[in-house]
Write the structure tokens for this entry.
Amino acid sequence: MALFELDRSQYPEAKADGSLDIDLASGKYLKLWQGPQHPGITGNMSVELTVCGDEVVEGRTHVGYLHRGFEKLMERRTFIQCFPIVCRICVPEPDFNEYCYAAAVEELAGLEVPERAHWIRTLILEMGRINSYMMYLGGQAGSFGMGVIGQWATYVRDLMLDRFEEMTGARIYHMFILPGGVRDGLPEGFAVRMEETLREVERALKDINDVMYCNAVFKKRTVGVGVITPEMIEPYGVTGPNARAAGVAKDVRKDQPYLVYPELDFEPVTGSVSDIYTRADVRRRDVHVSIDLIRQILQKMPKDGPVMTRLPNVLNWKIPEGETYIRGECSRGEYGYYLVTDGSGYPRRVNVRGPSYTHAMALLEKLIVNANISDVAGLMVSLHTYPPEIER
Amino acid sequence: MPEGRGYQRLKPLTNLQDILDVATEFERTARDFYKDLVPKVSKNIRYLVEELAEEEQEHFDLFADLARRDDLGDLVRHEIERPASDRKFSDCVHLPDLGENPDDQAVLQYALMREHAAMEQYTALAERTPPGPVHDLFLFLANEETKHKNELEAIYYEIVHSGGV
Amino acid sequence: MTVQDVLSPFTAWKNLFRDPVTVRDPLTERPGAARYRGFHKNDVAECIGCGTCEAICQNAAIDMVPVDGIETKEGDSGLRPQIDYGRCCWCALCVDVCMTGSLTMSNEYTWIDSDPDAFRFVPGVDHKSWDDAELGYHRPDGHRLTPPERIVMREMDPERRIGNFEEIVDGYSVEEARAEAERCVACGLCVATCPAHMSIPDYIATIREGDYEAGLKLLYETNPFSQVCGRVCTHKCETVCAVHHEGDPIAIRWLKRHITDQVDRDRYVDIIGRPAGETGHKVAVVGAGPAGLTAAFDLARMGHAVTVFEARKHAGGMTRYGIPEYRLPYDALDADVDVIRAMGVDIKCDTPIGDKVTMTGLEKDFDTVLVAIGLHLGRSTRIPGSDHPKVAKAVDLLRAITDGETIDVPKTAVVIGGGNVAMDIARSLARLQKQIHGEVGMTVTALEDFSHFLADPEEVKESFEEGIEIFDARGPREVLVDEVGNVTGLKTWKVVSIFDDKGRFAPTYDEGDERIHVGTMVIEAIGQAADVALLGEALTEKLEWNRGRITVDADGRTSEPWLWAAGDCVNGPDVVHAVADGHRVAASMDAVLKAKELS
Amino acid sequence: MEAFVKPGEKNRLKERPERPVKQELQPRVVKTPDGQEITVEPLKDYYCEAPPRVHPPAYAKIVEDLFNWARAESLWILGFGTGCGAIEMRPLMTPRFDAYRYGIQWRPTPRQANLFVISGYLSVKTLKRAIRSYEQMQNPKYVVGLGSCTINGGMYWDSYNTIKRLDRYLPVDLYITGCMPRPEALLAGFLELKKIIKAGKGEGANRYAENFDWYKANQKQVIHDWDMPDYSW
Amino acid sequence: MKDLTDRLGTLFSLGDITEKRDDLAFVSVAPDLLRAVITHLRDVEGFTHLVLLTAVDWIEGGQFQLTYLVHNRTRARDIGLRVFIDREEATMAGIHDLWPTAATYQRELKEMFGIDFPGSPRIDEEFILEGWTDIPPYRRDFDTKKYAEETYFHRPGRETFDPATHMKDKLYPGEAS
């Protein structure tokens, strides 16, 4: 239920294409730009707000600040050369691109990935999910003025990056999930150090829960704000925690299990009303689920065995013609790669379908109307959008 | 064969210089033999005969200046501490008749035979003389001939066992 | 809004009492992890400059640059990777694909500079602080981006191949050839090593695309004997193949053969193209071996009228009369020769030089003459008893088998010699013994020990498989003849060591270890010489000689202005060197003829 | 540093079709509270159009050294993460790497910042905002380029939308290579920058003023949608 | 998937069908039939989630392939509708009324490929590129490497050597081949 309902009669009607006919000269409206740089959002996205008083009349999202034309560049790179560039699409969670691209190439080229590689991939994806949520928590608290949560979250994320560096050889862009498997096994003593880091994450989460979630000010400003009704989920293609907060248990890991998720038992976390608070809470509980998943993985994982299948000569690697779509559940929602090959050594077309494509554009522009200026930042961050997924 | 003509001439001599003179004379005859063989042989193997002539010439010079040296005795003794071993590679190569137009292999066989004969002649002389400077000198001469023969065997291997893959 | 909501944020104050997590000195306390992908290191001695790292780098960050102090030699291009850190993304694909594993990474990560042009360096040559860092990313063992194993070539098993002269090697099918061609990283190091400098990566690329006619055109630009070289080449290129360092080299010889097998033979001539217009010059070639015919092929394509004089009944020289059919079938050789004939070369067989046709005659009738007579005279050990009729030379025997003459095949025989010719004659006679007597009785004795064997290792292995006993390090002493006059065997001594430390021939025998090898026939395969008598006395005198061989300059010209010499009789132990000689002579002759036109 | 070529250097200005000026930038007549009618010229009223001047060093060396010491010890970074490298600047804000002990902190507005960190690739759209942010920073100001993308294009060397050499558009004092450089490398870079400033060689802003036309020509060559005055501080 | 494609086959005339996996199939549909099929899929067959709408540039055939991928969560299945339109005047009926989020896809395709969707909200507004003067960049006839070199000028001073030609110059310069 929205806290306050304003009658919109005093505003001009929408034009044919849905935008309002605003007359700035009338002095009733003011055009404000939110972004392109804002501590909450990782990456640059700006919202052009038309404001009447401090209530938003209309909002338009502008992206393109981080556009490098990945899909164009990938058409000029062979399949092995595309591998390092895909993980650059999304900074908070690069591994999902590597997994989706590798799975798409493996399906079209008919590569058999060894069992242990599946387990290591799932481990990496779950660790990446925790990192992405930590970044979100920092951003969400920052957009409501609580800077200290960002410090704790980024610190814990840094510990997790040490685990990544130890396993994959790099902090952010791991370039570890290669088409055909993963580059190497786990280093010795990894499970022990991982357990310590997980305990650190749990301790930090508990602190964040105390300070942020059980916080009167935070509750007052987030409960009932920017509500996504269950009916909005299908038309706007809402996925991930945004949808689960509305009570719809929409999780690709459960709907279409991939990798080793069928062998892991977990329940997707759902909320009641998808407002900013519930979405934040669903994400917090999702971190706990991920922590438990990592523990299960490390415990059930086969200790030895090959991690990489035999690749053909990657310099002359031609994949037969075909097209496929691989999807997975990243921290922000459904993430998918649509890969089309034409039998040559280069992909004909790669299309990255990130969850933010719909969240930040259509959904945000709908939710932002009659929101308060002070809530716009929090609303944007609560959808957990990441602009390069939109413009790639 | 070892008690041939040369053996008889050298057997009675006791003076080092005389022995050396006779040895140098043998080398000179060998050199002259090769020298006049050169025009008679087909041009493509003439280089081989010229080489043999040079070898003999070197020996001739060696023995000649040895003869003039006075510290002959200990120089010889020093040389024979490291005797060259006779490898016996070419012992089984029977003596060809040089004939009208010998090929390179035949020329080499003939040269090997001469070296072998000289080596056996000097070793026989060495065995028959009591230990002393003369004995050492004969051993030294035998040693020289053996080294020479080994050299020729190496050239023989390179020419005969060659070509083809 | 409960009281708990108001009070619980204050729990944050408990952090006042926790000790700080600050890294005291972040610049030194935080080295990269053991697997960290930091700045590059390169072992320049191990690196062969093959450029595969440059091929895989998607940022075009790597240039192959010459480095003074590292000179270009066979198997090493002398270039070293220069990495531009204004492009690199540290993905380590170059480290994973490195053919020799010389390129690795340190765990160093700090490089700061005001000048943007400074971020370019040749690892291993421009010395950096991280050159001797122990930690850092190395290619995990077992992780390969290029398949190391070679596609296995199907061969007839010993039992089946011993009974006949059919070709042992079946040749690759299209899928196998494509899979083998896929493995090639097209670095180009092999081109310089191949005596004929064939454009190997290009024709392997045509196999990948399946465009065999383009492949054949490429082959015939540099080697008119592609069918022959596809079977019997000594494939030096495979010894310097980049894949060879950490796996099996690419089967370049068999891939060349695969191209020639795929294109049917009547298409050859129009693929290779018609020769150019008549130039009116006449060239004579003595000897229809690979050297002579390659020169003839090139000259014919340049438009000169070429006549080849061959002493034997068929063209091919040593490739026909020296190599048995199970290694090189005659139809493959004839295919190559037919192509050369189709270029307008007039090959006159059965016309030895000497009586009817003389060298002086050739000098008069032709503008230029090429002597390519090969090494057709067999050498004999001339040990006692070696002049017995039952003691034959391997080259003569192989020629007889090729001409199909019937020879009385002994039940047991002994071969002296350790080179390919010895193996060929041993395995040919073994087949005849199997056909006539039903079982093999061949013994091979060689002066050299196995490590110094001149024969290819696969030849020796296949001979063992076919039941031929091979004794290495045996010095032949005497051919034993019984009182009735038949050869009964060969006496040999054990060779303790064959070369001295300087590599010169200095054999030492163990007279105690004497052995008699039973055999009613002895075949000598110790060496070959050129039959230079056919040049005639006058010409022999005029020519310059070098240790028994005609002296030639780099282009194959002898001291006589009108005479060239090429092939085995001048230098080069094998077919592909002869082909290379042929090219050089043709180019030089063409230049001389053109110069003569102007003057 | 690459030799500075006067604006004549071959950077052909792409012929630009006339673009409609944005609604909020068009002049409009507005009634003031006390009833007057005035016309608002956004492109003139909102900006101060004056080309940058070269700031000479202080009158005495001792004083200049003191100023440089103060400037070096308080590097206030503009909180504008232009590229993917910005994510490695976040750990510096946390107690673990604690850039504050070196006097480095992040300020939201260009007015209060004296160091602009270009953290990786720079798309044309962000370049336009980066130029405005840079020009709004007060002298003396410094620019640090992170990662291989600012040196020679990095992974996006063949992309149609990212600039390849940062030094053609903004005066860069220091480069830290890496893809992306780690927090420890950033700290090492900032300490290196301190040395450069203390040595008095942090002259990026003055270089920008001296070669102002060259920089503007390069910038306009890639930014086609130039709806602001040449220098807007 | 077989059952679904058969049912669709009875209602509409479909082009070739490729069954990728048991939960993914691609079907070719005529451009004018697209709206009908996709509405049927959404309302009757339960494919309520529009996953993506993208274009593949088959420049050799002179065609754009528009791919509409819709997902049915209850049956956990996807179906991709392939529509081939001409490359030169590329226009297609929009589906922004069926899914509001389709408007964003259509804006991107307009800017990146030049495919026009008449009536789609804010279709001509700049979406990603600002002040772009060249042809839509995602078309295959736009060479991004040439554009980058002409517009941004890479750092000079780099030169590479090919191992084979370098060895030829060093070891056997005179030879013909």
